[in-house]
Amino acid sequence: MLDVAQNRQAKKYTSGEMIRRILWTIAQPLFRFSPRPCFGWRRFLLRAFGAKIGRRVHVYPSATIYFPWNLRVEDESAIGEQAFIYNLGPVTLGSRVTISHRAHLCAGTHDHTKADFPLLRPAIVIGSDAWICADAFVGPGVTVGEGAIVGARAVAIKDVNPRTIVVGNPARETKKRQ
């Protein structure tokens, strides 16, 4: 049975994280309302809050990056319109990764086997040249292999092998990518 009182009393974030969260919330309008082609400005803001951002990365203004300090994006990758990066834990995108519009990367969950439902922050890794298509969901602790594709509206709750295409809910392999 869930112990709500114990869950609410648990310290889920350090004081440093709480301060960074407040500051990032204050800075959000500078990110959100920047003109669409101002990718350099958004890279600057993300880096200012601890994100590791490579060269020629495109992050669109309507994307939501929950904790910039838990984000690493390598060269020439893109995070599309209305993408949601819920990165309580680390999220790493390799080079030339595309996160399409409305995709959701979720690096946070709870341990349902314990009464206090503690917060867990399993990492997500998206390999180079991978594509997370529109409305797809990548769950906590999932690694999407190099060159893999998670199809539109697919739900990847297990690792995706390199150069494979997965579709559906739960995501299942349909074929290999050439």
What would you note in describing this structure?
The chain is α/β, with parallel strands linked by helices. The protein has a single domain (4-176), classed as Hexapeptide repeat proteins (UDP N-Acetylglucosamine Acyltransferase, domain 1). Helices cover 19% and strands 27% of the residues. The protein has helices at 4-9, 15-32, 39-48; strands at 52-53, 58-59, 64-65, 71-73, 78-79, 84-86, 91-93, 98-99, 104-106, 109-110, 119-120, 124-126, 131-132, 137-138, 143-144, 149-150, 155-156, 164-167, 172-176. Strands 2-5-8-13-16-18-19 form a seven-stranded mixed sheet. Strands 1-4-7-12-15 form a five-stranded parallel sheet, with helices on one face. Strands 3-6-9-14-17 form a five-stranded parallel sheet, with no helix packed on it. A hairpin with a 4-residue loop joins strand 18 (164-167) and strand 19. The chain is flat and about 50 Å long. The relative contact order is 0.11. The model has no long low-confidence stretch (mean pLDDT 96).
